[in-house]
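Notes to self after the call with IL:
- keep both proteins in one doc
- input above output, always
- annotate only the second one for now

Protein 1:
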Amino acid sequence: MTFTDLLPAGTVANDGQFPAMQDATAEMRAAHDATVLVPLSHLSRLHADGEDASAFLHNLLTQDVKGLPANAARLAGFCSAKGRLLAAFTIWREGSAVVVQLPTALAEPMRKKLSMYVLRSKVTLSDSSAARPALGLAGGNAVAALGAAGLTVPADVMTTAGTDDVTVLKLAEDRFEIVLPAERLATLWGALSAHATPAGTPVWRRFDIRDGLVSVWPETQESFVPQMVNFELTGGVNFKKGCYPGQEIVARTQYLGKLKRRMYRAQADCPPPPAGTPVYGADTNDQACGTVVDAVAHPDGGCELLAVIQMSSTTAGAVKLASPDGAALTLLSMPYSLGE
């Protein structure tokens, strides 16, 4: 069984993304009020194998990969020489391999980019997404659903647990990812969907927005230093680990510079804008003061989004989408302190 077999007949997934299983509005409402099950076909997993896998990634990413515990998951970034994020990952260990997860739209370009640094390192990078697909489970009944399917629930947020050849990641108290062999997809899908509403890609992206977690898409590559998207607040940057591409700029921003932009959560009375859409502040007139990171439709109308915005603009009047006369943003709370 593959993800294609799970999707409604005639569904065309763009870079693994599809709008809904049946009713997009009902599924998004279930994400607010119930429990949902999402094929994570919009995410891909690169496996780094070999005796140098940890050291290889440690030298490239913003995270301490060498110190990554066997049962831990972490956020990590890969930056350009100018300290701008080329990709944002979730990483964890599966046996001797390190798994690097990112949007499918960037998976092959990043595999090629990272492979350029292999040189004499004893490491191979391969895309394991087809052999080991992933499901997302979120909501108040998620823990019970995992138990009913015979899966172990990780003890803490951003930890993993293994049951046979299935890995469960706990991303939040009510949100889990299940990575499994393709041959077990039909069985586990049946077991979990008995306790959750099957849903489309925007539902999972809505949880990323709720949790204040950045996704870097092709439209926003090289747009943000890690601190602009709150990466140091969500554990994506380790400032003690030593050099990696762009490290000097990231460290200077942290210790010597003054951060002028942050990622905020907001809502607006309009359809969800694409990633990369500019936003405008009352204090910047016809000059953009920020960029949309991600956005999804809200079941009650309008959209919910993450945007990187010039901090001064958030208190200088209305911030507008797409143009100085666009829809106004209403800022919402984040699940962590922005420290402003």
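Protein 2 (the one to annotate):
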Amino acid sequence: MTSAPAFPSPELPGYTHVYSGKVRDLYAPLDRVSGQVRADQLLLVASDRLSAYDFVLTTPIPDKGAVLTQLSLWWFERLEDLVPNHVVSSEVPAQVAGRAVLVRRLDMLPVECVARAYLTGGGLAEYQADGHVSGVRLPPGLVDGSRLPEPVFTPSTKAPLGEHDHPMPYAAVEREIGPDLAARVRDLTTRILARGNDIAAERGVLIADTKVEFGLEGGEVVLADEVLTPDSSRFWPAESWEPGHPQPSYDKQYVRDWLTSPSSGWDRASGEEPPALPDEVVERTRAKYVQAYERITGRRFG
């Protein structure tokens, strides 16, 4: 499986590079007087890398990092009455302007907090097997694209880079972080998705599911990383929603579909890295990310 991405991280004056994940690079700011690394903040840089099926693809998607950053900032403002977020400032070095934020350093929770408002993807496969998703029993008769009675919390493990996340029963979350904290993040995750759908529906977008991450600062739960973006969520055009089959989307599902189509020539079960994306797939993927941003925010990108 894949390891750390083979993309160079930019040198940023006043910062030291500390880590690169699948799609983000982390830097620590240096104290202006002592030159020592500050322990209270991080610079979170969203790259144009794209991950799919636990691989970091060799082909970047232009402007993807900027779309994710700007859309997250837009959502953070609309969620701040529900939960505080980690943003300190969007004033960042010129080399990463528009796709980076200075954030508070948190003690991150070791759980991927996922909520579903519609049934599809891995949740659908679980449901078809035994009527449950992450241990949550769902009503009978649901199909691909069915709306759930209310958003459900379906957490997963937070696997190391290159390994699969796995569905995690709620009882396992309680064992991992304690019952009080588990209940808090469950409530916040489903409320974030519900709030997101209330807002996005007015703009003709359905948010099928989403993944959010939380950290702790002084015992307080803080929303971190990104929120309600095409990388962390499934966005569907409301006008074409029709349960019973896969839905068109404004997210990286288009890339997933191409990778598993005969056109790519790639066998997902082979263990081999996926092929480079052709120009047409890159251009259409970029267009979907930009369309998601513009349709949800009502702002022009760029």
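Annotation: The chain has two domains: 15-104, 107-268. Helices lie at 64-79, 121-130, 170-177, 179-201, 253-259, 279-297.
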